[in-house]
Amino acid sequence: MKPVFDIRNVTVSFNFCAVRERSLSYRVSNWLKRNPDDRKTYAALSNINITINQGEMVGIIGRNGSGKSTLLRVFTRVIVPKQGTVVVAKEKTIAPLLELGIGFQPDLSGEENCFLAGSLMGFSNHEIKSKLKGIQEFAELGDFFYEPIKHYSSGMYAKLAFTLATDVEPDVLLIDEVLGVGDASFAQKSLQRIEELLQQGTTVVIVSHNLEFLRMQCKRIIWLEQGKIAMDDEPDRVIEAYNKMIFS
Questions:
Q1: 40-69: per-residue pLDDT in tens?
Q2: Which of 42-46, 100-104, 219-223 has the highest mean pLDDT?
Q3: Torsions phi, psi for 90 (to 5 deg)
Q4: How many whole angstroms separate alpha carbon 29 and alpha carbon 38?
Q5: pTM recorded for the entire structure
Q6: pLDDT for residue 181 is more than 90
Q7: What is the SS3 string spanning the chain?
Q8: Judging by DSSP bridges, how do beta strands 83-88 and 94-97 pair with one another?
Q9: Rounded to a whole number, what is the largest CA-CA distance in the chain?
Q10: Are 96 and 166 in contact (CB under 8 A)?
Q11: CA 27, CA 37: separation in Å to the nearest integer?
């Protein structure tokens, strides 16, 4: 199988102030003195090595703050690490569902956001127009499809985001917990669509706290702990070890 993502020795760090509330005069004085202004470095990811092959469905688990969402952003190159290498297979269409409604413009309608997102993914207006009816029907939005999405509920956001991302038949689908939003019937439809994409060779990487869902759907789970890979193995082994750590 061909690798879609090949990540080697990747480390992602962020700077933050240990003391947040400081006066302007204090900060100016610190800058003039070339003091570090109480800055500390936080390693969101540390020495990560992962290869994900075409057609795999890979789950990512870990406690809050373990680096899961940061890793997905590395995959999409939203975050470019200063250390390590990230190789993404050429000419791959990546559909990221990283945050509820991310990339949507609230004052535009659902239909208009489809044109905007589709154009950013490289589709022509004609191609997008041919998909609109199917998107509207699958997302179950009715006439709200033509209303500004700032009036949408969180479930409507999730339905439109998922439908749009999957209707374009991406080579890679990245999901960050958004499938947990919405009703049970739509969740079942979403799962069926993911299965269809997998049959077509789509690579799916999903972050979730729903361990049983990942156990049933994935053939491999990556467990992140404090920015490092604690385990990368078949679901039963990883989930057993993870639960043992959580409940011990």
A1: 788 899 999 999 999 999 999 999 999 999
A2: 219-223
A3: -70, 150
A4: 13
A5: 0.82
A6: no
A7: CCEEEEEEEEEEEEEEECCCCCCHHHHHHHHHCCCCCCEEEEEEEEEEEEEEECCCEEEEECCCCCCHHHHHHHHCCCCCCCEEEEEECCCCCEEEECCCCCCCCCCCEHHHHHHHHHHHCCCCHHHHHHHHHHHHHHHCCHHHHHCEHHHCCHHHHHHHHHHHHHHCCCCEEEEECHHHCCCHHHHHHHHHHHHHHHHCCCEEEEECCCHHHHHHHCCEEEEEECCEEEEEECHHHHHHHHHHHHHC
A8: unpaired
A9: 62
A10: no
A11: 7
Note the pLDDT tens digit of each residue in 153-173. 888 988 898 898 888 888 999
pLDDT(113) > 60:
yes
Q: Which CATH class is domain 3-247?
A: alpha beta
d(CA 116, CA 103): 9
- Residue 169, pLDDT score: 83
Residue 225 has pLDDT above 80, yes or no: yes
User: Rounded to whole angstroms, what are the CA distances from 220 to 1, 20, 34, 56, 235?
Assistant: 15, 40, 48, 8, 5
Q: How far apart are CA 140 and CA 149, in angstroms?
A: 14
Q: What are phi and psi of 84, to 5 degrees?
A: 100, 180
Gap between the Cα atoms of 219 and 139, Å rounded: 28
Sign of CA dihedral 160, 166, 169, 174: positive
Where in the chain are the domains?
3-247
